[in-house]
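#structure-requests
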Amino acid sequence: MSKTVEFYFDLGSPATYLAYTQLPKICAETDSQLRYIPMLLGGVFKATGNASPAIIPAKGRYMFEDLNRYAKRYAVPLKINPHFPINTLMLMRAVTGIQLHHPERFQAFIDGLFNALWVEGRNLNEPETVAAVLSEHGFQPQAVMALVNDESVKAALKGNTETAIKRGVFGAPSMFVGNQLFFGQDRLEFVEAALREL
């Protein structure tokens, strides 16, 4: 059986962005597969009673400082988005649609959106900004919006989110190695260790 990391993610989480920058390297070094599973973090929060740490001002300030520490450790760019929090319903439906219908372009799609959010700090709450970002990365906004409104895509994202909740996910990023759950960009060393033990 091949070694796999199941990566439950939502674009709107800066901690998820940091994990996304590191997981491909970890998987390459451990000869493992990385399986991206888009979910809706808002749905997870609603079902579990959890909320973003940023709603508590002192905790939010600390979280952003800590994320910057990790960005420096990983040597990756990070700009805390001035428009945070971002409503990611449309974005995560788009991600799900691309994954289902254009898997060969999935990596380029999430690369562009993660970069827009957490490197460029763009306001992806605005449909016109989303359209501009998609165009810049070679995607047709109207075609992507058709996927966003596709009922099978909506159902797939909802199903992923429900499965995540059933498996014990309460936030993002959440990663599974087998049945072991690891939460947070600060737990990647444990993800790597679990892969090496398989």
